[in-house]
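Protein data sheet
==================
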Amino acid sequence: MKAFFCIIVAVLACNGIESLLLPTWRGLRSPGHAPSWFSRVRRYPIPTHRIIDPTEDCFLVTSEEGELFFKSPSDEPTVCGIYMIAEPDKRIQVIFNYLDVPCDNGGLVAWIDGWELNGQVWPADSWDDDRVVESCDTRPQRKLVSRQNAALVQYRVPARGKGFAITIRHLRNARPCNQMLFGTEGVYTLRNHGETGNCSMIAVSPASVRVLDLNVGQSIKRGTLLDVETGTISHCTKRGLVDYADIGGASGLDHTKMEIYDSICGLNSNEAHRPMLIACEDTVIRLVSSGRYQNSITLAFSPLPLEHYEHADLICGINEI
């Protein structure tokens, strides 16, 4: 958990606010205004009632449920964000209890289903206009629920005393597809639930990844007399197979631009002999499914020690150096 939030803070501190905002938000800040508060980005639990102090919490990352209040202390056109994350099998619900943000002076509050960072969004495969709800003057009347375990509220309130209040809740997700991991420690399973499309798992840090169980592109059901394992098949895309799991990394949240170490498929209940060492800003698993199979892959994640970076299986961006 701690490692995950340290990575987020480091990325924010290095890249600045302009790269964080969706297109409709860019250009709202005056040029040359140094975002000195990036060095103070922190993660907090949310008590029952918490008031956001923009001088300390302009970019708040939280994994807690609760109620947040914001009241603008000035007329400065500062853009801030609340990055919310839950357990991989949860969704995030946000209710706007009230919203008093005038439109006439450029105020705006936006709910984003997923995360946006450095001009990239996650999940990228399923992006559509329904994943952004922008408001001012009047609050959204409906409950806003994310499709996965990450969501974002960005806001700009250039009017002293104006603001909003939200309640954050974590809801059970019976069929999680895209999953953002809190860190790089633990065992996780990615499934397509028999549906066509791509699902992804992303850890915002380098990682050591070991495959514990693989069932991708196989119609044989476990527990029958026909339960014959194929073993792990590598380079499945080169073999023309349409169901596979890409394992690799990316230099940002957009996993459609990931660098791939291997694409695997097959039926294998035995733990892999060795882990794959991914030395990238983000470690990504992408499950591509035709809809003909109940695909699943179970993986064990652990932090990648700094001394192993040089000998990693995949080092993102090495071809650009």
Remarks:
- DSSP finds two helices and 24 strands in the chain.
